[in-house]
Amino acid sequence: xxxxxxxxxxxxxxxxxxxxxxxxxxxxxxxxxAIREGELVVHYQPIVDLESRTTVAxxxxxxxxxxxxGLLLPQHFIDVCEDADLVVPLGAFVLHExxxxxxxxxxxxGRVLVNVSTxxxxxxxxxxxxxxxxxxxxxxxxxxxxxxxESGMLLATQAAHADLxxxxxxxxxxxxxxxxxxxxxxxxxxxxxxxxxxxxxxxTLRLGDRSTGDRISTAVATLVNxxxxxxxxxxxxxxxxxxxxxxxxxxxGQGFLFSHPRPAEQIDxxxxxxxxxxxxxx
Length: 282
Ligand code: C2E
Ligand code: MG
Ligand code: MG
Ligand code: MG
Description:
Elements: H1 2-37, E1 40-49, E2 54-66, E3 70-72, H2 78-83, H3 87-104, E4 111-115, H4 126-137, E5 144-149, H5 150-153, H6 158-170, E6 173-179, H7 186-189, E7 194-199, H8 201-205, H9 212-226, E8 230-233, H10 239-247, E9 252-253, E10 262-263
Parallel strand pairs: 2-4, 4-5, 5-6, 6-7, 7-8, 8-9
Antiparallel strand pairs: 1-2, 1-9, 1-10, 2-3
Helix pairs in contact: 3-4
The protein binds ligand C2E and magnesium ion (3 copies).
């Protein structure tokens, strides 16, 4: 009986994979034209100073405005992008959009943080792509930050190391994204010039459990403050999580409680605080 159900499961799995491969191929072809045809858009989510709840920076998040399927989140296409070597054009697009956002809004003095795929680092010469986006928009390097996961920080190649070092030397901040989910040695991650980290949302979800969630949040907030980095706690959805985050020593946060990611035209930068907070550039 176990054998029979096992076979059923694997048949279902094989069928699913076959279908999936086809789905991926068609998404890949569509994505190539989406990048060309300008169907990708960038939304922006505020990062707030927790004490005052004022916006001090924005995270750029890509979306695909699909002609028939509507607005697609990255989870539906980022993996395909990575496998199909489309992360380089996608990354360049988001960086150019982020720089254009800054250049178009002289009243906005904060940073825009851009997510960088591990595949963009080193082999894809990220430094050159970032420099091109900054130069064509006239934006100062300190206005851009790059969010990189632990695995991206741990790339061992010479080219990857050169990319991260030269970006930081240019004045572009490197920020560890989804901190705590990467199973990496802290000492190895910190061999890079890291300016800040973002605590992964899965820990925020566990705030208030009076055990792991709270202890991890407190420990990482302490780590951030003692290493003189800036720390952002991600995924704050409730007032209770917000209060806990403050209590644990976090100064910056991000989450639906403050704002969902929004299209550029819905971000009213004239109403954003000019703030001397750690993420405000310059
Ligand atoms: P991430 O960089 O960790 O971004 C945070 C994600 O959490 C975003 O999802 C954001 O909308 C979501 N989020 C923010 N606050 C809350 C909250 O309070 N509750 C919940 N449930 N979610 C919240 P999104 O935009 O779907 O992006 C998912 C991931 O896709 C990102 O995770 C990032 O790894 C990747 N990504 C997004 N944009 C880009 C991009 O331009 N390039 C690359 N390479 N990756 C990107
Ligand atoms: Mg991010
Ligand atoms: Mg994150
Ligand atoms: Mg992520």
